[in-house]
Amino acid sequence: MFEKLDELLLRREEMERQLGSEAAADPNLYRKLMMELSSTQELAEAYQEYKREHRTIDDDLAMLDTESDSDMRELLKEELDGARKNVEELEQKIKILLLPKDPNDERNVIVEIRAGVGGDEAALFAAELYRMYVRYALNKGWKVETTSAEEIGIGGFKSVNFMVTGRGAYSMLKYESGVHRVQRVPATESGGRIHTSAASVAIMPEADEIEVQIDPNDIKFDVFRASGNGGQCVNTTDSAVRLTHLPTGIVISCQDEKSQLKNKDKAMKILRAKLYQLECMRAHDAQSQARRSQIGSGDRSEKIRTYNFPQGRVTDHRIGLTLYKIDKIMDGDLQELIDACIAADQAAKLTAMQDDG
Q1: Residues near 236 by Cβ (< 8 Å), separated by ≥ 6?
Q2: Torsion region of 24: left, alpha or beta (phi above 0 gives left; psi -120 to 50 gives alpha)
Q3: 21-35, 44-58, 95-109, 152-166: range with lowest mean pLDDT
Q4: Are the C-beta atoms of 307 and 330 separated by less than 8 Å?
Q5: How many angstroms separate the CA atoms of 243 and 237, rounded?
Q6: What's the CA gap between 323 and 325, in Å, rounded?
């Protein structure tokens, strides 16, 4: 591991020299070098700090061999303990930074939420999940754009699709794929009984046309008039688009835009994301069980989380974490849950890497 890190430092020195010479006259080379330097900066800084702490340990041990003053020896021992602790923490940090990066992490995402078992209550919960993710995304400074929604009259969604645009969106939201379960007393329940409902969430990285090529002959387009809640017409032209991908049977409807062309473009983006996700899942399933993340496969059929309103708790079943702040979480405060999933994912990958090593 350390030989590779030494090579990394030498490579960075070479790139910095290039930036001051030939790269200055070549914008493409300059941009490439800057991207590579940026992508390795955190790892390089952690390793340089690791080496500094190791030098401190060596120096302190050498001084302890010759130092006779008791007060100075105590100071050296305290510094030595601190340096050893820092070395352990930095070594763990370096191992995490060396883990293979998910190539999709920096992508925008397309989110699909569907009401599951539970009738109207499930549709209401799907709408609450939608609001939760929108608030989380906006708090992160990301852009949210709803592409389609199938509403019910009481403010719920049978299904809703939206795009989240922002750096690192997929790296944070990818852990949300799966079945979300809610336990609470519905407003229509006169007996005060707790009902259980569910909604499924799919998080798909946005894919471009080069990565996913689609044969136009495989697509059937239908146009219809966009409508609002309760069937009220909000558009007098046939601007809404329904896309059917014949080989897979995937059907996508988009009516958010007034332009048929824009709705068609959005539908194609969603289709590319769905097909890209299918390909990623096939590649994932081809891996051995030992290499799979222990916090879940991202399959939308896997129950990942329960929201229990009477007890005010949210439990993530993949990592055994329960938080008693359901109101804040439903208001978009998801970072603690997401950070815990990231930590568990990294721990699982480190274990797999050590087993392979």
Answers
A1: 225
A2: alpha
A3: 21-35
A4: yes
A5: 18
A6: 6
